[in-house]
Automatic annotation (TrEMBL):
<dbReference type="GO" id="GO:0005743">
    <property type="term" value="C:mitochondrial inner membrane"/>
</dbReference>
<dbReference type="InterPro" id="IPR001708">
    <property type="entry name" value="YidC/ALB3/OXA1/COX18"/>
</dbReference>
<dbReference type="GO" id="GO:0033617">
    <property type="term" value="P:mitochondrial respiratory chain complex IV assembly"/>
</dbReference>
<keyword id="KW-0472">Membrane</keyword>
<keyword id="KW-0812">Transmembrane</keyword>
<dbReference type="GO" id="GO:0032977">
    <property type="term" value="F:membrane insertase activity"/>
</dbReference>
<feature type="transmembrane region" description="Helical">
    <location>
        <begin position="284"/>
        <end position="308"/>
    </location>
</feature>
<dbReference type="GO" id="GO:0032979">
    <property type="term" value="P:protein insertion into mitochondrial inner membrane from matrix"/>
</dbReference>
<feature type="transmembrane region" description="Helical">
    <location>
        <begin position="236"/>
        <end position="263"/>
    </location>
</feature>
<protein>
    <submittedName>
        <fullName>Cytochrome c oxidase assembly protein COX18, mitochondrial</fullName>
    </submittedName>
</protein>
<keyword id="KW-1133">Transmembrane helix</keyword>
Amino acid sequence: MLRCYRTLHLGSTVLSTSIKSKPSACSFSHCSSSFQLTGVFTKQKRNAAEPYEYQKRYLSKESFSTKLVEIQTSIFDTISFSTPVQWAQQVLIFVHDTSGLDWGPTVVVSAFLLRFLLTFPLSIYQHYILAKLENLVTKKFPDILEELKKETAIATRMFNWENDRANFNYQRSARIQYKKLIEEENCHPAKASLLIWIQMPLWISSSFAIRNLTLMRPEQTMDAMQIYADLSTEQFLFLDSLMACDASFILPFAMSLFNLAIIEMQVLYRDEKLTGAKRYTTNVFRLIAVMMMPIAANVPSVLALYWASSAMYGFGQNLVLWSPKFRKFCGIPMTRKTRLLPYRHMVETLINRYRKLESGK
């Protein structure tokens, strides 16, 4: 075999001489029987009907699922041991120990309390910013646009601008004036999104905090074991154990129902046809509200109880924020879309849509 290896590594002259001489197979009798001259020095002809053979790699489904579970576990552990989750967990324990309530009422009270202290003021501020922005767009800005059109027409005649340049200067001036108005009124649209940046982390942190209680995290101390035992034995309303899943589907259904009601009430309150991005966003939120139902049915009922309580609070909060008296009390400006009788308007809009569906059939 060594001799065969040396023969193959001779200089180009020896190789060319060997190829021209066309040695027989017996010249390589000292090599391994698996070695063939034809496969090394000559090009094999492939039959046209013979398909190419490719080396395929098959991904193991078991290894992929295992890797996916590991990634999910790593992400959940990172969130579970984060500082906001630890704070939310301490708040739950503090409310439970201070009030002396069982864990069922503690979760409901904590959900209402956190939403009222953190998200309710931000919701009022969001409505205030959106109302000022709407008045700016519908009342002040149109007058400025009319002045800009007149100035652009005069400049076009004086400087012989083409239509493209005139439109460019008009759009540029309109953006500048719009930014000035926003700065004067102090109603930048980004301020209205402040609520979502607080509400979502609050919901996630509270959910993981309750999850930690059911898993005796972050450490399995005596207090953690006692909380776990209380959650397993305490009853609340129709629930025999807060650790078991809600077999009646009442909490998952209530959570999805309240979330869908919030979305539909906002659509009915605006009473406008959804198009483009608004329609897409609304349908996505509807889908999420429905998809959360099976998830809530497969988690401990104490977690589903928190989700249902938070959704119920959000439903009541929206009803309050649409009240004209409350809006006036909070100093929220009136707009063209403000309803003096919001609840009656939503009911009438719902009835009209139902009649349209019936007539369409």
